[in-house]
Amino acid sequence: xxxxxxxxxxxxxxxxxxPMRLISLAPLAVAxxxxxxxxxxxxxxxxxxxxxxxxxxxxxxxxxxxxGSAADVLPIGVGFxxxxxxxxxxxxxxxKYKPAAVWFxxxxxxxxxxxxxxxxxxATQGNTKTWVQVGSVHDAVEVARLCRPDVIVxxxxxxxxxxxxxxxxxxxxxxxxxxxxxxxxxKDISVVAAGxxxxxxxxxxxxxxxxxxxxxxxxxxASTEATIAAGYQRAVVRAKDGGxxxxxxxxxxxxxxxxxxxxxxxxxxIINQSFLDAKDGKVTKENVDAYAEAxxxxxxxxxxxxRLTTYAGTGVGLIDRIKPAAAIMEEIRRQVMDIELRTSKxxxxx
Length: 350
Known about the structure:
This protein is α/β, with parallel strands linked by helices. Helices cover 41% and strands 17% of the residues. It has helices at 3-6, 26-34, 50-62, 87-96, 113-123, 137-147, 170-183, 200-208, 218-221, 230-238, 242-245, 251-256, 273-276, 285-295, 325-348; strands at 15-17, 38-44, 73-81, 98-105, 129-134, 151-155, 161-164, 190-194, 214-216, 246-249, 265-270. Strands 8-6-5-4-3-2-1-9 form an eight-stranded parallel beta sheet. It has a three-stranded antiparallel beta sheet with strand order 7-11-10. α3 links the parallel β2 (38-44) and β3 (73-81). The two termini are 34 Å apart.
């Protein structure tokens, strides 16, 4: 039926807030949905406090005119990092607070998602749609066969945070995934684009590729509703030339102690002294100790000679200011409309 049918409050083009762990919490998720998009809470691997986040989201939603696809369905989504999230706690919580969508990412094997898909659908009486993030055509087809999700999130290699260490950019990945799903008989599965998109030109490009919606994470790092340190935000706005100033690596996970990730996944972040001190990707005790000292500095740990992890995608160089989520989305929609108008005028002259 399409995203606007399943999520009747969304506006075209459909803009989606990525479920950034510890950063995309109730304020940002609700703000994105209230502005006509679909916001996700980033539960990640820690679901012990998910009920509290959903309680806060419910309160914020009641303060708006926002309504879900059904009376007892929250007009937001929740994202999970499946290798670490507790399954039983998740199901119990979502049975009580039904989000419009769940987003799965990074199981140790794709077959693990079968139980997640079936049990959450049962717990929410089918009201919660299933999204699965992938970074390859192979995974997209395998997930479709195993789980038949409602949405495949095609994450290109430019994405910030965690993704495949080896993969294609969204320009080739999205159409190849769409073609493969159609060939395998899964043309009813929606495909949305993620990875490196922070403004209207990127959104317009993804729509031209056939994406039904566009995910943004890095752009919302620089939103007023993000749960993020001021130093982290300043580092995002300061960064330029994202293809050179960011890198995908396991260094930052090692320094932070989040080492349960599947081997093929790494995290893209802004290059800083911690990365530069990791020779050949190896983290020494001295580097770990220096990172621990940087944590004590608070926001100054992200200064120009900082060491603290700053996950961000290659689009970071296009971000120059911090804005409310609604203002970001309004600007992007206006940019997309201008691009479509210019394109229409050019075609009329052909």
